[in-house]
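Lecture 7 notes: from sequence to structure.

We start with a single chain of 480 residues. Read the sequence below before looking at the structure.
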Amino acid sequence: MTSFADFGLPTPVVRLLTDQGITAPFPIQTASLPDTLAGSDVLGRGRTGSGKTLAFSLPVVTRLATSAAKAVAAGKPRRRPGRPRALVLCPTRELANQINAVLEPLAAALGLKTTTIFGGVAQSRQVTALAGGVDVVIACPGRLEDLLGQKHLFLDDIEITVLDEADHMADLGFLPGVKRIMDRTPSVGQRLLFSATLDNGVDVLVKRYLKTPVTHSVDDAAAPPPQMTHHILAVSDADAKKDVVHALASGTGRRVLFTRTKHQAKKLAKQLTGAGVPAVDLHGNLGQGARERNLAAFSSGSVKVLVATDIAARGIHVDDVELVVHVDPPAEHKAYLHRSGRTARAGSVGDVVTVMLPEQRGDVRDLTRKAKISARPQPVTPGDATVSALVGELAPYVKPAPAPAPQQPSRKSQGQGQGRSRSGQSAGSRHGSGTQGVSHGGGSYGGGAQAGSRADGAPGQPGQRRRRRGGRGRGPRVGA
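Now the structure, written as C-alpha cells:
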C-alpha cells in the first residue's frame, strides 16, 4: 500500500499526517501528487469528499518550504509583507475556513504562515496579517480584489496558485474576477485547478492559465458515489411533509437538511429546536460570526442537525454526516449532487432523501434522471417503517432554552426612542435573538445573546442609529 512517505514529502509533514491518523492517501492524492510535487500544472476532476484539499495542500507547502530555504540560504528574507507566495481561490467563506483548517497545520510544521481573506467581516485583521507577512493566502475573489485595489497585497511573488471548486465559482458569477486575479499572478508559476465539471466557462480557465496540464479524474464527478443510497419519499400534502421532515431530523447522527430559501432554513431550524431537536441554520443572511458559530457547533457534534441553503452546500465539509434531506428538491441536478455530497464522503456511507409533494413528481423525475439516480418514489406516512429505518436511533429530547426576557428600557432610552419606531418595539427586540454558542433567526439553543446584538456579534445600537438616519431600515449587506 502506498503511504505519504513514498512521495518524498518533508518529514515534519509526514509525521503530522501520521499523528492525525492519516496514513493512506486517497486515489486523487495518489494520482496527482507525483505531478504536483514535480511542478506540473494539474487539472483535478472528482466529486466532493474525494480528498482534493489535501491533494493540493501538500504540494503547496512542500514547494514553499523549498523556496523559503533557498531564499534564506541566499541571504534574502523568508517572506515579505503584503507579498504571499501561494494563493488558493475558492467560492465561499466556509470553504476558505475549512481549507485553512487543513493547510494551516501543514504550513506551521514547516515554519510557514497562512491567512484567509473573505467578505462579510472587517478587513482590518486581514490587512494586519498581510502586513506581517504570510506565505499562503486562501481567499474568495471579491474581498481579494478589494484588497488588491487598496494595495494591501501584491501577487507578483506567487509561485503556485490553486483554483478550488472552479465550477462553483462559475455558478456564482465569480469567473470575471478570477480572471482578473489570475492575470496578476506570474505566468511562470505553477497552477492547479480542481473542479467537478468543466462547464460554465471553467474550460476557458483551463485553456488560458494552465500550461499542458496533467489531468487526473478518479471517478465520474457527474454521478453520485456508490456508497450513497438515494430515497425518494412521496408525501400526500404539506402537513405530512412537515411531520416526515421532523422525524428524519430526530436521529442521533449528523444530518443536513436543505431548503430552497433562506427564510425556510431559518424557520425550519427554529421549529426543530422548539420541538426538542437542536438545529442550526446556515445561509447568506447570517453574519460571519453566526455562520462560524453554527458550523462549529455542527462540526463538533454539539448540534446534530444543520439546515442550509444551496449557496452553503459546498462550504460544508464535515465528516460522518449520515443523512442528507432535500426538504425542497433543488432546481437542477448539479445542485442535487452538490447537496448530496455532504454525506458518503471519503469512502464512508450515507443516505440521501428527497421529500416529494404530489405536484413535484415531474420535476423530481427529470432531476433524478439527469443526476443518474435510479431511486423510485415510495409513498410514506409519518411513522411508517421506511421513515423509521432512515431515522435510526432517536436522539433524546432537548428542552429548548427559554426566550430571553424583554429588558425594561431606561427612562433615558424611553425618551430618546419615543416616536421613532414604527413597530413600537424596543431596540433589542428589533434585532432578534441569537444564542451564545449557536445562532439562528428567532430560535435559540444553549443560551441567549444580549438584546440588541446582531447575529454576527456587532453591537446593535450603532446599527439602529444608522436605520433612523437612513429611514428605511436597511442594514449593511454581507458579501461573499
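The CA atoms of residues 463 and 475 lie 7 Å apart. Keep this in mind for problem set 3.
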